[in-house]
Structure formats: C-alpha cells, structure tokens
Design brief:
By secondary structure, this protein is an alpha+beta fold. The chain has 5 helices and 11 strands; from the N terminus they run βαββαβββββαβββαα.
Length: 271
C-alpha cells in the first residue's frame, strides 16, 4: 500500500489567526514535498480562512512510497511566533498555536466494504476555492458513516458524482485507519516506541519562528532555517529519513528484546 490521505486541521487554542496561517504553511509544505518527490497531489477538500489562512484541507497523495515516507507526520504540530497583523505594538508578544496532521493509508476498495445503508449523503454548495461553479450548484458532497459518526466532505470538483467518489475514498481511508489503530493498541508492547505511535493527540514537533528553530520531540532533532524547512525540499526530506531510521532502530530493538524474552522462557534452568 503506497498512496495516502493527508488531512490538516487548524487548532482552536490560543493564537487565533496564527493557527490558520500555520495550517496553510504546513499544507503547502506537504504539497511542495509531493512535487519534490514527483508524487501526485490531489486536493479533496479545502476550507480557507480569513487573512489567507486555512481551517481544514484534505488531499490524496499518490506515488512511490508515499505512506512509508509520511506516516510519521501524524500528530499535533505546534507553532510559536509573533502575529504579523491585527495587534498593536504593545501586544507584540509570542503566541502559541497548534494544528493537527492526519496521515492515513489509502486502502483498495476491496479492503474496506461499506454498506450503503450505513451512509447519509448530503449535498450543498461549495464554499471554498474551486472556480466559477462555487455557490452556483449543489456539487459539494458530505458523507456521514452512521455507525461510527465519521464525516467526510469533498467540494473541489464540478461534478457531484466525482465529489461523492472522492469522499467515499476518504471514508474508506478513515475506517481503515480506525482498524489499524485498534490493532496497534492491542499489540502495543511494554516498550513505547518514540516513533511509530500514530496517536493524533501527540505533540510531535515545534516550529519556533522567533528563534528560527524546528524541534522534533520524538528524536530530539533540531534544525535552523524554518523557511527552508517549510519549502518541503531537502531539509524536510532529511528529517523524514531520520524519522524512518529511528523507527527502524526501535523496531529492531523491540524484536531483539522479544526474542531474548522468548529464549529465557524456553531455556530450562541449569542446576
């Protein structure tokens, strides 16, 4: 499985507009990284905010090794910066905000079967960027999976049918992600992997604009030059590689520990 669904959501914590602006910057970073890796980046939903920010967006990323590269990006991303607009000089202090990233593998249709009876499908007029058709036809689609309460939307295409197909893809990915989460929680060992847990509430990274410093809290990684990092090219790619190496090391250590424990259990005591 290679393709993935990316979803970004602005936080509602203190920070106001900086959360929405930061969400747009992070989404753009992933889009630029897809270009850097020659992946296809298909926007499924895009809900802009005032002042050029972003409330929420979702995209399907297709290409070689997409999910393997991006699966450790899921979690809470924190930003620390001084707001650029809307505050007087005496209030120019550092604000802290957050946004969340979800990365889900895109399953094949045969992997996740959905009973049409479990769906509620609503149509509405697109409210985001999308061309001349916005607010002229009910082309946007919202799908609710009644048993789980999962809701997905797609409003980027002119065709209601195409939007429905893309929304169902997103729904399959979210249902598949729930299954993976259950399996991981059931199999989780005493060793807590620094990298590899996909809990979306976990704060994984801090972007400190006032100090021009990025910190990934899982592997104690720091880098300077946030502008270069957010360009989604080599500096970001270097961190992706470091995360994968750290995850591989943790998995190897866990395997060695498991094998050692099994050997102790099956080795008779020498008296």
């Amino acid at each position: 499985m290679s393709d993935a669904i990316l979803e970004v959501t602005s936080g509602r914590t203190t920070g106001g507009d900086i959360c929405q602006q930061f969400t747009k910057e992070v989404f753009d970073m992933y889009q630029n990284y897809a270009l850097y890796k020659s992946w296809a980046f298909e926007i499924l939903n895009y809900t802009p905010a005032e002042y050029g920010g972003l409330h929420h967006a979702a995209a399907r990323i297709s290409g070689e090794g997409v999910y393997k590269c991006l699966k450790y990006e899921g979690g809470t991303h924190r930003v620390q910066r001084i707001p650029e607009v809307g505050l007087s000089s005496r209030m120019q202090r550092i604000h802290t905000g957050t946004m969340t990233v979800i990365i889900l593998p895109q399953p094949d249709e045969v992997d996740i079967r959905i009973d049409p009876k479990d769906l509620r499908i609503d149509t509405f007029r697109a409210k985001g960027a999308g061309g001349q058709h916005v607010n002229t036809t009910d082309s946007a689609v919202r799908v609710v999976h009644i048993p789980t309460g999962i809701t997905v939307e797609c409003q980027q295409e002119r065709s209601q049918i195409v939007n429905k197909e893309k929304a169902l893809r997103m729904l399959r990915a979210k249902l598949h992600g729930q299954t993976i989460e259950r399996e991981l929680s059931q199999r989780q060992s005493a060793r807590k992997l620094q990298v590899g847990t996909r809990a979306q509430s976990e704060r994984i990274r801090t972007y400190n604009f006032t100090q021009d410093r990025l910190t990934d809290h899982r592997i104690s990684y720091e880098a300077r030059n946030l502008k270069e990092f957010l360009s989604g090219e080599q500096l970001f790619h270097d961190l992706i590689n470091r995360l994968q190496e750290s995850a591989d090391t943790e998995a190897l250590l866990e395997l060695i520990e498991k094998n050692s424990s099994e050997q102790r259990i099956h080795t008779p005591n020498q008296t």
